[in-house]
Design goal:
Elements (H helix, E strand, L loop, with lengths): L2 H10 L1 H12 L16 H16 L3 E5 L3 E6 L4 E8 L18 E3 L2 E3 L7 H17 L6 E7 L7 H7 L7 E4 L2 E2 L2 E5 L1 E10 L8 E7 L9 E7 L3 H15 L2 E6 L5 E6 L14 H10 L7 H12 L15 E2 L3 E2 L1 E9 L3 E10 L5 H13 L4 E2 L8 E2 L5 H14 L5 E4 L11 E3 L2 E2 L13 E3 H19 L3
Parallel strand pairs: 3-6, 3-7, 7-22, 8-23, 9-21
Antiparallel strand pairs: 1-2, 2-6, 4-5, 5-24, 9-20, 10-18, 10-19, 11-12, 11-17, 12-14, 13-14, 15-16, 17-18
Helix pairs in contact: 1-4, 1-11, 2-4, 4-11, 6-7, 7-8, 10-11
Length: about 475
């Protein structure tokens, strides 16, 4: 009976919603160096302050938890629901084409900019859902809290701080994934490994190899420097690898006689590694194609290429590929590499279906790496997360989805970890749909404005159902 009012209200606030989102997107909220009162650096603290200002403007009772998170409460009754969204963002490249990452721009019904889809746009949608309910004066028997954090992309230290002070709500959703709804999140294994190498007399060798800066992002760049190999030989090998991988290489002869190789791939979320073009693993393949002297370091690099080849994004060669009917298949993204002739340090990000254990996942990797003189430095797994798909909460949210999409909703599984992974009664609900590639974590990230408006309407519908339930 209130749908028409909500729909008309949200539609009337379209321009305001876009401007508020632009306000947040203009703030570079990548994690920075911790400072007094700014646990994740200047940018995250600045965006928390901006979001608090918006929540106050729209009538929510705010609390700033020392710039870890800011909350906005609507209602003073018993709390029924928390909505969790985050305001921090992943790093950017120089390869954006529609606009600069922190200069939001509307083009053809889309708003472009870092964070528009992940997760500033969804945060604004949730805020406007609450604004609509409040300004329309719709009844609420229980209260709801909007929680906006600033460290989701780098470990969720913000929520660790918050939940050390506050309790989990009876129900929680985060608008940081796909519609219809995500009730299962895969576990994760961030395999960090290293090796030290003795001094060896080599003429043709890898001087350095670096790639990646975030474990949860498919690396789009890699830099390789080799000595003792002619530039023409490197270029020929690079051309062959490009033909196999579509990762581009640029070679440059250096004044000291070395050859520098810059690889350019395509970034993607580590939970969907097949959607990117991994510059790191492509560069490993290039190394195997070069005439280099046999050293302990080269043995390690060749071993890594054998265990984590470019096309293998499911851990098959490492011996850990598994699949579960409910949660899907294991995925693996080799995301960080730092190599010199003396030392190697690297990390991969594996997303684990139900059924993965240390015995069948981390232990086999440890043994495989050891064959090449490499030590796995951690073997801890993060367990998968699951809220029953037939629960009242899940079915209520799916009902709101169905009301606005006009089709049956189904609870899904994801390889991405969200804010609710450690919460007993938390699910991911919106704001994207699987058939639209929003370039999340990539260049030219965007949110469809129609989806932003529809999400706000869905959230308002769901909030009213949950907060008015007996």
């Amino acid at each position: 009976m209130y749908r028409e009012k909500i729909d008309a209200y949200i539609d009337s606030k379209k321009d305001e919603m876009i401007e508020d989102l632009k306000t947040l997107v203009r703030i570079d909220s990548q994690r920075g160096r911790a400072k007094e009162g700014k646990p994740f650096g200047d940018g995250p603290a600045k965006v928390v302050a901006a979001a608090e200002g918006l929540m106050k403007q729209y009538g929510l009772q705010t609390t700033n938890y020392d710039n870890y998170v800011v909350t906005g409460d609507f209602g003073t009754q018993e709390k029924a629901l928390d909505i969790l969204a985050h305001l921090d963002v992943v790093p950017v490249t120089e390869d954006w084409t529609v606009t600069e990452p922190f200069q939001p721009k509307v083009v053809d019904g889309r708003i472009y900019g870092r964070g528009t889809a992940d997760d500033k746009g969804p945060a604004i949608a949730a805020l406007y859902a609450l604004r609509a309910i409040r300004e329309l004066g719709l009844p609420m028997k229980k209260s709801v809290r909007l929680i906006l954090g600033s460290d989701e992309e780098c470990g969720s230290g913000d929520l660790e701080y918050y939940y050390a002070k506050e309790q989990e709500a009876p129900y929680t959703f985060t608008p940081d994934a796909d519609f219809p709804l995500i009730n299962i999140e895969k576990g994760s294994f961030k395999g960090e490994f290293s090796a030290d190498f003795p001094a060896e007399d080599a003429k043709a060798y890898v001087v350095s190899f670096t790639s990646g800066d975030k474990v949860n992002v498919v690396p789009a760049r890699a830099t390789l420097v080799v000595a003792g190999v002619e530039a023409a030989v490197v270029e020929e090998a690079a051309a062959r690898v490009t033909a196999q991988t579509n990762v581009a290489f640029i070679t440059e002869s250096q004044a000291d006689g070395t050859v520098k190789v810059s690889a350019k791939g395509v970034a993607a979320h580590a939970s969907t590694p097949s959607e990117g073009k991994n510059a790191l693993t492509a560069t490993l393949r290039l190394i195997t194609a070069l005439p280099l002297d046999a050293t302990k370091g080269l043995t390690a690099l060749l071993g890594l290429e054998a265990l984590f080849p470019y096309e293998d994004t499911c851990g098959k060669q490492a011996g850990i590929d598994r699949e579960n009917e409910e949660s899907g298949a294991l995925t693996l993204c080799f995301s960080i590499m730092d190599y010199t002739p003396e030392h190697l340090h690297a990390i991969f990000d594996a997303r684990l279906p139900i059924g993965c254990t240390k015995e069948n996942t981390s232990y086999p990797v440890k043994e495989a790496l050891a064959q090449y003189g490499i030590t796995l430095d951690n073997d801890e797994l993060r367990e998968p997360h699951c809220v029953p798909g037939d629960s009242w909460f899940v079915q209520t949210l799916l009902g709101s989805y169905e009301r606005y999409f006009g089709k049956k909703g189904k609870a899904l599984s994801t390889g991405g970890g969200t804010y609710v992974h450690e919460l007993e009664r938390g699910v991911a609900f919106g704001c994207m749909v699987p058939e639209v590639d929003n370039h999340m974590h990539g260049d030219d990230e965007f949110m469809e404005i129609e989806m932003l408006l529809r999400s706000a309407k869905i959230f308002a519908d769901a909030i009213l159902k949950i907060c008015n339930a007996e």
